Every structure is written in structure tokens, then in C-alpha cells.
Amino acid sequence: MDEWRQHFLNSSPMFEPLRGVGESLEKLERWPTLDELNALLSPSIRTASGAAIRFVPQDGKPRCMEEKYEARIYLSGEVQTRTENWHDLFNALVWLAFPETKTAINALHFSAISQSASAEAGNRGKTQDVLTLFDESGVVVLYADDEQADLLREHRWTELFWERRQAVTERMKFVIFGHSLYEKALKPYVGFTGKGLMLRVGSSLAAFPGEQAQELDQLIASGLAERVNDALCPVPLLGVPGWWPDNETPAFYQNTEYFRAKKPERVRY
Hints:
Layout: H1 34-39, E1 54-56, H2 69-76, E2 78-80, H3 86-97, H4 99-118, H5 126-137, E3 138-143, H6 146-153, H7 157-163, H8 165-171, E4 172-176, H9 179-185, E5 193-200, H10 213-226, E6 233-236
Parallel strand pairs: 1-2, 3-5
Antiparallel strand pairs: 3-4, 5-6
Helix pairs in contact: 2-4, 3-4, 3-9, 4-5, 4-10
């Protein structure tokens, strides 16, 4: 059984996107119940099929396509959730913080599942793999400077995170989405890496994800839907300025096992 940490949302700036929706959890000295999590849901949080989202206990093995995890969410709104479990708690909090994005992911999953079922195909396609990767390990990289975005895409980590540290703080924003990343953020380790969805925005980054949380959710949902088959950029999260005490010196970024160079692209003939 996992140990409850009452003030986990204030333990790191990585949890900033969840603080608004999880504020009431700070008052609990024990794990929240499903009823308490459901009480945080707005009636407007619905799947693309119109079903209201609610967190329900985890069941056994699905007996048909309609009972599979994503299909069940799409058709009935039921999100199977284990209690006293960080992974599933963070999934619930992401539903609260980013309902439009989670709904978009679920709709794309259901479409892919339905197509596979009609084609009698047993293997998951690329779309489902990308969706799952982003759902579990996604980090949104908001940027207002194309040059800085190129440095990230080219894995020029020292130049980006150290030499242009102040500019990154002012012109980029990193927002964790994946619930698996949030779970890992409870005990960060060197090697902690997200899969980045790059989104260009205006220069007013300070408001994200605070007072413009809904706008950010809409931005992520539309950006992911448009680029669901694009490659996601690796982001070594402990390199983000302000996210890890050890990154206050340039030596931290010399660890090439963590801050890896970009692999040369294969040339096809």
C-alpha cells in the first residue's frame, strides 16, 4: 500500500498544473475516497459520446470490446480507478485539470479501437501508441521563441537550459500532463524524462496554467488532435530551470547519459 503524502502538491513546482483542482486534498490526512474525487467533478466533464465522467472501482478482465478501459470511458464515462494508488489518483487529477484533452485522447482511442475491431485486427496502431505515451508521459512545451524551441528539438541542452537560462524562464513554459510523470515526480531521479508536445504561443506565458487553465486545456487538446502522429520530443525534466536544485550549476548538464545528444537521422535510399 502506498503511503499518503498530504502536502504533495506543494512539494515541487512540477505539480503546479494540479494545485487548483487538488486544493481540497491538502486538508486530508488520508487517501481520498472515490466519492470525494467524484465530488470534485464538474457535470460538464463529459466524454465525446456525452457520458458524464465518474471514477469507479477497477473491475476484472474485460469480456468484450465495450468493456475495455478506454471504450468503457467513452461509452459510459466510467474511469476505473484504484484507491490508495498514486498512479490512478494522478490520472483522476489530470481529468479534473485537463478535461478537454483527456476527452480528446479518449475519443481518438475509441475511434482506433473501433476501427481495429471492425477490421478484426489485434494489434494496436501507431495512433494508440502515441496517445498512450502522451497520456502517461506527456509534457507540454509552450514556447514563444522559435530559436529556443529548435535548441530543444536538437537536444542542445546546455545551451538551452544553462546558457539561455533566463530566456527559457521568460519565453518557455513546461507543463506536465502525463499522470505517470506526476507519480515519478514524487521521487524524482536523474533520468526522469517526459515526451514533449511542442506548442507555439504568444509571449504571455505567466498566466499558464493558472487563470488561463481552460484556455491551456483547449490548446493542448487541439494541438494533440492535429499532430497525434508526430514525434514527441524527449525532455529531461530535471534540467528545467527551477525544477531541481542540482541544476543550478553547468556541471549538471554535462551528464551525457541523461542529457543525451540527438541521434543522427537515418538516410533512406
